[in-house]
Write a structure and sequence with these properties.
Mean pLDDT: 97
Function: Catalyzes the first step in hexosamine metabolism, converting fructose-6P into glucosamine-6P using glutamine as a nitrogen source.
Shape: globular
Organism: Ruminococcus champanellensis (strain DSM 18848 / JCM 17042 / KCTC 15320 / 18P13)
Distance between the termini: 32 Å
Subcellular location: Cytoplasm
Number of helices: 14
Bound molecules: fructose -6-phosphate
Strand order of the largest sheet: 4-3-5-6-7
Main location: cytoplasm
GO biological process, one term: protein N-linked glycosylation
Low-confidence stretches: none
Strand content: 15-25%
Length: 364
């Protein structure tokens, strides 16, 4: 049932080109997006002014990336909230708002409670859910189903990737319905999003280098991930992946925050993963890389082909195929998934069932 792979996680990582393609094509065909299966209408999208994205764990990291994309493409106000915090806040929810609950299982207790709270307060709800018929799918007003199929590995990979593209498509359709995007830009994005599956495939075919790098870091005690914008959101996910299956202490920071405290943790040999795919922010993040390097950090750089600006700074660089900046997270997360996987395997851990964790968190 593992389809020849040693673990479900590796199998699910390799399923990503297919399931991401399926999820894209569930609403995008011939350059046009239809949300008929989701329910949310163009008119509703025009009237919404505020979006609350509510989720836990990796799904929350998708929300972080989605916020940047929605803000870039639309004039919507967007807030991203951890479900376990959101539900206990005494916050006035804006009129004309939409709550987007992102959940693979559709059963996460805090996310479900947040959904119910929004409904009680009269806020329209949209679930981005993988499991058909799950509680969140049943109770949300509208549902965008990700087509990841059953995910067995506790550490999410393919569901996360499907949630990301669902968020892009949602942002694109919001922009279109609201007249906030030119036809040309929409067409360019629609063409570009279609290239994600094959580009993920290319990254998967080049995994030996990552495997080699992973073998060099199995014994590290701490790791840091830095990035700005979407790269920060991906760093958060990379860091969670690493800690949950390899048990290496790991933290992700917005690169600009380093000097407000965390840089004191950097010492000779500390491994710092830098995600650098957002072209407008290259220089700023590279200057943060230089800062940690001068304090002895070992730098893993993750960037886009064509950006060779950090070659002199990074000790090990991984390149992802070129793509619109907004979609880069779908590619940059793949090497980080593979790396965590290989580190966990290298340490002899039970990759699919990490200690202390459950696939679906139904307690609060
Ligand atoms: C991490 C992971 C968790 C889940 C979180 C939310 O690899 O899988 O952080 O993302 O527990 O779960 P769902 O998406 O089922 O609500």
């Amino acid at each position: 049932e593992k389809g020849g792979y040693e673990h479900f996680m590796l199998k699910e990582i390799h399923e990503q080109p297919k399931v991401v393609r399926d999820t894209i094509h569930s609403v995008l065909q011939n350059g046009k997006i239809s949300f008929e299966s989701v329910g949310l209408t163009d008119e509703e999208m025009r009237n919404i002014q505020q979006i609350y994205i509510v989720a836990c764990g990796s799904a929350y990291h998708v929300g972080m990336a989605a916020q940047y994309v929605l803000e870039e493409l639309t004039s919507l106000q967007v807030r991203v909230e951890l479900a376990s915090e959101f539900r206990y806040r005494t916050m006035t929810l804006a009129k004309n708002s939409l709550a987007i609950i992102i959940s693979q299982s559709g059963e996460t207790a805090d996310s479900l409670a947040a959904l119910r709270l929004c409904k009680e307060k009269g806020v329209k709800t949209l679930g981005i859910v993988n499991v058909v018929g799950s509680s969140i799918a049943r109770e949300a007003d509208d549902v965008f189903y990700t087509l990841a199929g059953p995910e067995i590995s506790v550490a999410t990979t393919k569901a996360y990737s499907c949630q990301l593209v669902a968020a892009y498509l949602l942002a694109m359709q919001f922009a279109k319905a609201r007249g906030e995007i030119t036809e040309e830009r929409f067409a360019a994005l629609a063409a570009d999003i279609e290239t994600i599956p094959e580009k993920i495939q290319r990254i998967l075919e080049d995994k030996e280098r990552l495997q080699w790098f992973a073998s060099k870091i199995v014994n590290i005690k701490d790791a840091f991930f830095i990035g700005r914008g979407i790269d920060y959101a991906i760093g958060m996910e990379g860091s969670l992946k690493l800690k949950e299956i390899s048990y290496i202490h790991s933290e992700a920071y917005a690169a600009g925050e380093l000097k407000h405290g965390p840089i004191s943790l950097i010492e000779d040999g500390t491994v710092v993963f830098s995600v650098v795919t957002q072209s407008a922010l290259y220089e700023k993040t590279i200057s943060n890389m230089v800062e940690v390097k001068s304090r002895g950090a070992k730098l893993f750089g993750l960037t886009t082909y064509g950006n060779y600006a950090m070659e002199d700074t990074a000790d090990f660089t991984v390149y992802i195929p070129k793509i619109d900046n907004l979609f880069a997270g779908s590619l940059s997360v793949i090497p980080l998934q593979l790396l965590s996987y290989y580190v966990s395997v290298g340490k002899g851990f039970d990759v699919d069932k990490p200690r202390n964790l459950a696939k679906s968190v139904t307690v609060e």
